[in-house]
Amino acid sequence: MSGTRGDAVVVEVEPFDLGPRDAAAALCLHGLTGTPYEVRSLGEALAAAGIRAVGPALPGHNRTPAELAKLSHEAWLESARGDLHALRAEHSRVFVVGLSLGGLLALGLAADEPVDGLVVVGTPLRLPRAVRWATPILKYVMPYLRKREGSDIRDEAARRRHPSYPVMPLASVHELLRLQRRVLAGLRRVTAPILVAHGVHDGTAHPDDARAILAGVASEEGELLLLEDSAHVVTVDHGGPRLARAAADHLSGLA
User: Residue 235 carries which DSSP code?
Assistant: First the structure.
């Protein structure tokens, strides 16, 4: 499990299934090139609140960048949809929690499937125009972009230990762009109560994306949580504990 043992932080990258098998469950989805570790702290908080938390590894993750680069956004979405259906078969109330790519998948699922509550974190609704224009061509010239400073996390210790691919496949970024267009087209179909969280210092997805999500969904219940001390991967950054509490409060109130 993730957490601490003395002064050492234990990093667990494998899929998780935590908490009781009662009425409510949450599907917890990580980000692009990341691992279930990114959302495990949320899963642990939900499990402590009495909600089963399941965190799978998305297709192409926990493997190699080359394998990830071969996959379409449809593969990520359909895998998450299958996990959602499996939870729905066992639980009367099902939530979706997502970080970054996982947030896009959560919104995409909620536009088409019955979902009882959402938490989306650091969700990139739109990437910069230059990225949108260049990526479809650049992916053939430079298939992988090296992450020079690691993941977008303000907490230096958390950034050093954060498990993630050292490169970003540009083919996968192109698929993310395609998923963004799909999510934008279906945003008004999202009606589930939603908590939208974002790090103020996010250098990957602008905090304005969080405001746009909240303004774009048709949910009658919506809350915006901005974490002043965090960047993109809020879940493991300085604001992680506050986010975990807020997510547990939001979803346990619906459970």
Answer: G
What Cα–Cα distance (Å) separates residue 196 from each residue in 73, 77, 157, 159? 22, 20, 26, 23
3-state secondary structure of 25: strand
- State if pTM tops 0.70: yes
Contacts with 252 (C-beta within 8 Å, 6 or more apart), sequence order: 46, 49, 50, 51
How far is the C-alpha of 158 from the C-alpha of 232, rounded, in Å?
12
Cβ pair 243, 235 in contact under 8 A:
yes
Amino acid type, 53: A
Q: CATH 3.40.50.1820: does it fit domain 3-254?
A: yes
3-class SS of residue 229: coil
- Angle subtended by helix axes 170-186 and 73-90, to nearest 10: 60
Place of tokens 């997510």: 247
Q: pLDDT tens digit string along 162-180?
A: 999 999 999 999 999 999 9
Tell me the C-alpha distance between 219 and 118, whole Å. 10
Q: Which residues, other chains included, contact 148 with Cβ-Cβ below 8 Å and sequence gap of 6+?
A: none
- Where would I find the beta strands (DSSP E) of 85-219? 93-99, 117-121, 144-146, 167-169, 194-199
For 85-100, give the DSSP string.
HHHHHH-SEEEEEEET
Asked if 23 and 255 touch (Cβ cutoff 8 Å), the reply is yes
At 2 the three-state DSSP class reads coil
Cα–Cα distances in angstroms (integers) from residue 17 to residues 193, 226, 236, 252, in the given order: 23, 28, 19, 17
Q: How far is CA 176 from the centre of its chain?
A: 13
- In which band, very low, low, confident or very high, does the pLDDT at 8 lie, cut at 50, 70 and 90? low
